[in-house]
Amino acid sequence: MEQIKGMNNKCQSGELEEQLQKSKSKLVKTWFEDIVNTYPDKTAQFMKQQEDQFANPVGTTLHTELGNIFDELLKTESSDDLVNYVDAIIRVRAVQDFAPSSAAGIFFSLKKIVRKEFKGKQEEYLHQLMNFEDKIDQLSQVAFDVYMNCREKIWELKAKEAQNRTKNLLRKFPDIEWNQAEEDGDYS
Asked: Is 28 exposed, middle or buried (0-12, 13-18, 19+ CB in 10 A)?
């Protein structure tokens, strides 16, 4: 996967990142709540209130990985770990049958949250905010790729399972002869 790189921006270098780092806890908490609100009400309430990682592994993972992703977005160039952080979140959403736009789109809400945090200071940080938002766009593209890979794997598993069920069903008929190629799954 490609790393997310910031644009060269000499204007007020690092000031926005410092402000974002200071506000990290608040921003990540708001981001977490926005994402949790994409779930049904009872699930969202549970995910917000239950802090035990064993009772609420999805909520705990989501909160932890959002913090890690936020840290990656503050770097000039993301590390290879970014894809793993995104994967931990998106893999669950892919299994839960979220649409691609809903699964990968959760990262776009961070733009709105950051804009709200810097309301009135947007001109001061304009170039850096644009750079940060570009990183979020790239992050969403990575998330979409991860989502599609997960869905592809799910469909491969479903197809393999259907194939195995059909084979097992047909094996119940003694008149059907199987050759080794069919046993190995080679039908060419």
From this structure: buried
